What we know:
- This protein is an all-beta fold.
- The protein folds into five domains: 6-68, no CATH class; 71-168, Immunoglobulins (Immunoglobulin-like), CATH 2.60.40.10; 172-300, Immunoglobulin-like (Sandwich); 306-421, Immunoglobulin-like (Sandwich); 425-526, Macroglobulin (MG2) domain (Immunoglobulin-like).
- The chain is 0% helix and 56% strand.
- The strands form ten sheets. Strands 8, 10, 11, 13, 14 and 15 form a six-stranded mixed β-sheet that branches.
Amino acid sequence: MNSYPMGGCKCSGFRNDVWYSSNGINWTQATANAGWPAREGHTSVVFDNKMWVMGGADASAYKNDVWYSRGITLLSPNGGESWSSGSNQIIKWRTFGSGFARYRLLLSRNSGSTWTDTISHNVATTESTYNWLVPVINSATCRITVQALNSTGPVIIQDASDADFIIRTTDVSVDSIIQPADSVVNRTLFYPIILVGNNSFPTTIETCTLSVKIWRFRVKYDSFCNISVNPLDSVIVYDTFKVITINPGQTRESMPAWRPVYGDLFWLSAPTYHTIRASVRMAGDMIPSNDSKWKKFIVKPRKYDLQVNYVALLRGRVLAPETISVGIAYNTAAVISNSPAGPAAGFRLWCKVIKARTNITGYSQYVDRTLNPRSYVCLSTSSGWVPTDTGLYRFYCYIEMRPGVDSTPENNSLERFYYVRHQPLTPPQGAVSALPQVFGLMQNNPNPFHGVTSIRWQIPVESRVTISIYDATGRIIKTLVNDKFNIGYYNTTWDCTNDNNQKVVAGVYFLRYTDNTNQKEIKLIVQ
Length: 527
């Protein structure tokens, strides 16, 4: 507490200077010329963060006037408040006097011992409030000071919170993934273990949802059967969550068990791997940046473990797109790997093409091979597959080994889906335009026939086209085409089978063509 003698009378005249001392012995002059008139016998008090001077006398008369200093009073927060991180709060103050250039707002986290956090450097003097987005701080000893500054920077007046207030934070976090470690072994159960933190302040018990996902990245097939990890082709292999209650501090959470079945090709120059990601969700969490963590780990194959890593259809040596065409030959491709743990293994690879709607196998071939440990091979059957009908097809490859030898049968197969549609033809010779000008259906060729016949048709605008085969009684036998097509020339084939892929008997059949505006029939003779 400082003492403040003010003014008085000296032989040379009345004074308006101000002095202060903390011990009554050592005195320091605060100013030699305060803003109130020089006098003696006056009364001075400090009230509402201002110094008041009342009455007194000068050389001419006694006075009954009242003077007060410029002052500033912080109204809120002034002690006892509890504000949450991330919330918007109003800092309020009241100012007496004028001549200020700007206000500055500062925050202390230790009851005003230091003021290290600047809330704002430049608040206009026309303001008496400030909308503050409360930062992420855990402290029960916060204070704010508001300062009025002149144009050159020095503080003229200031006031701080009279008592401490609290800034509280609600926060849970994923601190680390303890299990799996850097590697695990396939077909071996393990429990993902996550270290979860409760960082809420003041300390409270929090309830949140902990989610854990594991996925693996499959390989991609490059030219000449070079394979590497495909970062765009991920497969979720584990996905679970649990609601947990966390005491302040950290807790180890064990998730349901998982048994991997696909081993990573960690011996490749660009190895495959598995990834685990753990995340927490909680209403009102104020620090989302620490809500998740992820890590890579290797699943090591066991002994006696072959696996199918990749399957696809090729057109020549080039990967076929997911939508392919009738009448074009496609080769099968499958990548098989053998565990680094070995030993060398003989196996048979089956490749099958199955129509999804009927589940009828239209292509089935196999190839025998022996594969050394720590190696992979790209295999293809000797004859290609030529689709003759549109629709969705499943290309399926699987390894056949001696019973009891393969340690992980779950990774012995893969499948991939392809949609088959008709391929536009090049314009016929002598065509006036590269694009058809009218709708048209040509007679099938050959006719009569006993194997496969070809039907040509054309559309001058985008249309939905349906082509179906009927028997002599008017009963539908097979739908060859039912799709939307762009302008162009097309060719459709019929191999004398019905919708169940069974051969029809010899006789007369009718083909009915329908588009947006036209319908036409032709006669087909099966010998």
